[in-house]
Amino acid sequence: MFVKGMTYGWNSKRGAYRQPYATNSLRKLKETGSEWIALSFYTHQANVYATDIPFDYGYTMTDRDIEHAVKEAKALGLKVCLKPVVNSADGIWRAHIGFPEEAGAEPYWDAWFRSYTNFLAHYAELAEELACDMFCIGCEMVKTESKAGHWTALIDRVRELYGGPIVYNANHGSEERIKWFDGVDYIGTSAYYPVAKQPGDGEEAMIANWLPVREKMAALHAKFNKPIIFMEIGCRSAFGCATMPWDFTHTELPFSEEEQANFYSSVMKVFWEEPWFAGFFWWDWSVKLYEREAAGSNVGFDIYGKKAERIVKEWYAKPKTFQGAF
Description:
This protein has 326 residues and is α/β, with parallel strands linked by helices. The chain contains seven helices and eight strands.
């Protein structure tokens, strides 16, 4: 299985998946040659030290929303990875969710993992009922990742409820510290590697900087004998964003279709033929797209109407079957 995918659904309000513009967006996503979506949505815990994860439908998509989106995607022939995420309502990045490594912290870890396991169990059941093709058990939960026993127990619980393949979405730079990757079917990462050294760097410079990343990913595959998926990857169409592909805050940066396109093309060229590499979920494709004529001024992650979309179409039109050991 090789994933030609896009992330879809992020940062959408309750009910948005069921709007006509969402159906239109999914059709346009399919036209890129994508065969998968990662249906990604979130809820909030109160802060990074909270131990309770509520189903706050001010932020969390309802099951009816999710069911609708999955069925719409499948009607178009798209496969679905269900990707529930926990964010922190205090605005601190979810990687910092956790507790100080000191005596007395374990009861807090126990309580948090109990709540997180219940949260994931709900969506694992839903993923099974909706015949989702993959399930993501976490995204960039860096501070939690050292708790191998908790993660192993969580994986066991998910597998009781969901029969398909599971993936964990690490963050770039933290992949090598995770000891429990033997428990998942696919190793995922947010591959926001800063492959440009300066704004405006060309494709050749980016390719050179992807090569050591490829070596690292090959070693990770060799260690666990698991396929590698870029669960998130991309950069905005703004000058300098390939130096910080994760960035979504510097909206003042000028439009640069070329820099985004070079980022896309360079990683495709470096990873496409690797036998252990199992694909991409590009970040991201909006539920409500801008008008096509606005593509020339849009500085977001979306590639609709931009040069990077043409690159994705070209690569996704190529045959590719994952050949690695699995």
